[in-house]
Amino acid sequence: MAFQTGREAFIQGARALLPLIPGVVPFGLVTGVMAIKMGMTPTMAIGMTLLFYSGSAQMVALQLIHSGVLPVAIVATALIINLRFVMYSASLAPHLHQLPRRWTWPMSYMLSDQSYALCTLKLSAGELGRFGYQYYAGTAVLMWLAWNLSVAAGVYLGGSIPESWSLGFAIPLSFLALLVPGIRSMPALVAAIVGGSIAVLAVDLPYNLGLVTASIGGVIAGVSAENLRKKPSETAFQAEGERQ
Fold first, then answer.
1. Left, alpha or beta for 126 (phi > 0: left; psi -120 to 50: alpha)?
2. Most CB contacts within 10 A, which of 45, 58, 93, 203?
3. Over residues 117-122, mean pLDDT
């Protein structure tokens, strides 16, 4: 996948994200509706969305605010929920660290599960060439717009959305759409199975620690499976060398 210009890479990145928007919109609508139901004004709800830019952290923070939890605890909880972005950033850093800060800062802010899933494998494989940053920017900017506009729609139009639509059901479907195409090897499959199993078993852990625990468990399982897969080939190579 070789791009001739940065503009072409940006457009292709945005096009790659388009199929995921139907899963993002319901999540944003639910978040906007929830913010208003919790007693926030439209200005506060949209301001919070711009500040957080994390649906899961924002929804949990809204619940804690409604329950009267101390601000320090709310911030700490949001940080714990968003620990996965530390892993995302570490994975993308080798491919984007050479960029000036005027580019890395806004793109760090716009990092999302969707942009990471679409870009990480392509960047690691070198498929995007020298315009990898522009491709990532295309996914990140469109995702940011889709999310914030969806939340705004939920804030202003949420009262007219019937509950029978079951918008919350689209949230896990959007993440499944990201997961399945990324399973291209046995270690990836092992990581997905182990991480998913831990997430189900640890769903009741406080402060959404089940998500972090599942992420770490999946990474460890995937790395272990990769190491086990390499050992037979390394042993065979060593045996061949000894025979020679």
1. left
2. 45
3. 84
Give tens-digit pLDDT for 53-90.
Answer: 888 788 778 777 777 777 887 787 778 778 778 888 88
Burial 167-198 (b: 16+ CB within 10 A, else e): beebbeebeeeeeeeeeeeebbebbbebbeeb
In the structure encoding, which two tokens stand for residue 209, read together?
Answer: 């620690």
Contact 23, 170 (CB under 8 A): yes
3-state secondary structure the chain: CCCCCHHHHHHHHHHHHHHHHHHHHHHHHHHHHHHHHCCCCHHHHHHHHHHHCCHHHHHHHHHHHHCCCCHHHHHHHHHHHCCHHHHHHHHHHHHHCCCCHHHHHHHHHCCCHHHHHHHHHHHHHCCCHHHHHHHHHHHHHHHHHHHHHHHHHHHHHHHHCCHHHCHHHHHHHHHHHHHHHHCCCHHHHHHHHHHHHHHHHCCCCHHHHHHHHHHHHHHHHHHHHHHHHHHHHHHHHHHHHHHC
Residue 80 corresponds to which tokens in the numbers above? 């714990």
Look up the pTM and report it. 0.68
Most confident by average pLDDT, 45-49, 70-74, 179-183? 45-49
